[in-house]
Write a structure and sequence with these properties.
Aminopeptidase
Length: about 180
């Protein structure tokens, strides 16, 4: 499936995206704040495409101008998330390459993913979270009108071998429809 917005194409990850994935995911300002270590080489990025960015609703964020991957966005479906409980709930996760920060790209991509979740996937709740200090992720969720639910102390972040403070937000289908 391919999803489109005014400026973006959201499409499945391909093996040929490994170089671009590495270009952005190797930046120490990207992964660690989201809970994963910077990529060490293109082979690791290729492996991540095959084994992590391969979920049913995992998409590369690409500019329409060149269709090159500049970030990732995913609806983590039931069974693949700690936040969603029911079959009609999922979790939204995302990151964006640093050169593209501050251009409204992530809110645009996330808005389309919310539409997709509620209209195409039959979801009634979309959960989203961020760790303390990840102000950019927090801001995206505020722009999209997610509602704050709770704060958790000592959240395990296995990929970083540490514990953090986590914050959880929720968008219901009802709230989303009110904004349309």
């Amino acid at each position: 499936m391919v999803l489109e917005t005014e400026r973006l194409i959201l499409r499945r990850w391909e093996d040929s995206d490994a170089e671009n994935l590495y270009k952005y995911a190797s930046d120490p300002d990207i992964g660690p704040i989201a809970g994963w270590p910077p990529h060490k080489n293109i082979e690791e990025s290729r492996d991540i495409i095959k084994n992590v960015l391969s979920g049913k609703e995992a998409y590369a964020i690409c500019l329409k101008t060149d269709n090159k991957a500049i970030g990732a966005i995913e609806l983590r479906l039931p069974g693949n998330t700690d936040l969603a409980n029911g079959v009609d709930e999922c979790e939204l996760g995302y990151w964006l390459g640093k050169p593209f920060w501050g251009q409204g790209i992530m809110p645009e991509a996330a808005r389309e993913m919310l539409r997709h979740a509620f209209e195409d996937c039959g979801m009634n709740k979309v959960w989203c979270g961020y760790y303390d200090g990840n102000e950019k992720s927090k801001r995206v969720q505020e722009k999209l009108c997610f509602k704050y639910q709770w704060r958790s102390e000592d959240v395990d972040v296995p990929a970083m071998n540490e514990k953090r403070v986590g914050h959880v937000n929720l968008m219901t289908k009802e709230d989303w429809l009110k904004m349309q």
